[in-house]
Amino acid sequence: MAIASYAAPFSVRFQRLLTYRAAAFAGFVARCWWCSLKLMIFDAFYTSAPNASPALSLAQTISYIWLAQALFSLLPFCADPEVTAAVRDGSVAYDRLRPVDTYTYWFARAAAWLLGRTAPQLVLVLPLSVVVLPAIGLGAWALAPPVSLVAFATMLLSLALGVSVAAATMTLASAFVVRSGDDRGVNALMLTLAFVLTGSELPLLLFPDWARTFLLLQPFAGVFDTPLRIYCGALQGHAIVYALALQVFWVFALVVLGRRLLASALLHLEVQGG
Amino acid sequence: MTVAGTPQIIVEDLKKSYRVAERTPGLVGALASLLRRRQRVVRALDGVSFSLARGELLGFIGPNGAGKSTTLKILSGILRPDAGRCEIDGLTPWRSRREHVARIGVVFGQRTQLFWDLPVREGFDLLRAIYNVPRARYRQVRDELVAQMKIEPLLSQPVRQLSLGQRMRCELAAAMLHEPSILFLDEPTIGLDAPSKLAVRALVAELNRKRGVTVILTTHDMHDIEALAQRVIVIGHGRVLADSNFDALRVAVLRDAGEDVRIEEVIARFYALHGASEG
Asked: Which of A196, B151, B175, B279: disulfide with B105, CB 3.0–4.6 Å?
């Protein structure tokens, strides 16, 4: 298996997404809006009930919110739009004409889509949250440094697994699109699941006790909740190892499931038009 | 450049059906289809057989919906048939897809394999990487094709800004970058103006004659067939209705007619004769 067959489509798509300036700035404005809103809400919440959540302090929550917003584009909220378009107009036939494993080909392109849209947000949000806020006297609402260098390195590893979880989820959704010939049902479902279950709306540790165990175990927790808990020190010691193992398990499970579904969907592939 | 011996492509009794969902129009029909689905089985291929020697150029004609594209998609490894055998250079396309598709080039005239947002040159580079063609060899082949297709001035343009004729020449080059020994062309001249058609024909003829590429071409333009194909297969209702050279076909149809009948007329009469026109 030649790596270049998959690395080239990855890097072409990644680089192309970096050039979408208007999209990057629009995303940045949205990120800032949501961040300021959430920071104010949590500040008010923790001020009126300082010990409401032993799981996550206000400082930890602030760091979590900044990073969750910076990494927002890692949300696997739909099937790959390119695959969807190809299924609709029949050019999926050309994807099947390439001497590559179709699952890996689509997985690599999904990863490029996730990372290519996230990178510009990181470049814009991080300087604002780390440098600009302290400089204008809002240091209390700034993104704090990681609890340790080891925690930072572990977070990067966990984040790589998170990207894999997200890309595998998207490719699984793409397989559903091939199977049904339509993306609307699966995308509606993915949107809801991704927003709630990744922790993008509310850090998973802040959900009520009865829901928390389930939320921390399900696959979407691996996208960025796990890395962010490591970053802000909410996960420590052996718990980190278990969390990483859980991410590895979900990557493996999602890839196996996606491969199976795609193989059976392609067996009954119909090529639209002509 | 026909080489005698074992055929390069063997197709035996291919069959393929599609299911088509049907419902009565209107609100009642929509509600009824919630309870009970009706499906109609459409037979796209009903026992297609032929074989092709290395270096042959075969024209595939037939009315819309006759099964030409389905046959090409099965031969390309994209679709699997319900029954039948197909062997191309010793491989069954849908069983050894990856190995098989590395050896063939395909152009579907109605869609593009170039990358919409990328300049042509970058699209070619991407295909080189996907097919794992060694760089030095790639540069040589690409430069030859670029000269042959006269697309040098187009290389820096994004694909979406090319005219159809320009795009089709680039598509042909893209399909040949990995030097396949077989080329499948599904309506490569559809929608093209006269100069572009002539250019595409000249290119296909050159690939066939100079490089010995085996070509199967589907088309509705009988001038394509007249200019290119030594051999013609007429397909209708998913079956092979005729398999001969074009002149023999013309003679068979024109037995009772005057000599100055246009080619389109010849073919239309042939379809009518076999009840193969689309219903």
From this structure: B175
In a domain, B241, yes or no: yes
DSSP type of residue B161: G
Query: Coil, strand, or helix at residue B49?
Result: strand
ipTM rounded to 2 decimals: 0.89
Cβ-based neighbour number of residue A74 at 10 Å: 25
Residue B140's domain is classified under what CATH number?
Answer: 3.40.50.300
Give me the residues paired with residue B108 across strands. B186
Determine, yes or no, domain membership for B278. Answer: no
**B101 with A96: Cβ contact below 8 A:** yes
- Segment 150-189 of chain B within 8 Å of chain A by CB: 186-187
Tokens of A5: 């067959």
Domain count for chain B, please give it.
Answer: 1
**Residues facing B43 on adjacent strands:** B17
Q: How does DSSP classify residue A157?
A: H
**Inter-residue contact B234 to B61 (CB < 8 Å):** yes
Contacts of B78 in chain A (CB under 8 A): 93, 96-97, 269, 271
Q: How far is CA A43 from CA A40, A65, A126, in A?
A: 5, 12, 20
pTM of the shown model: 0.92
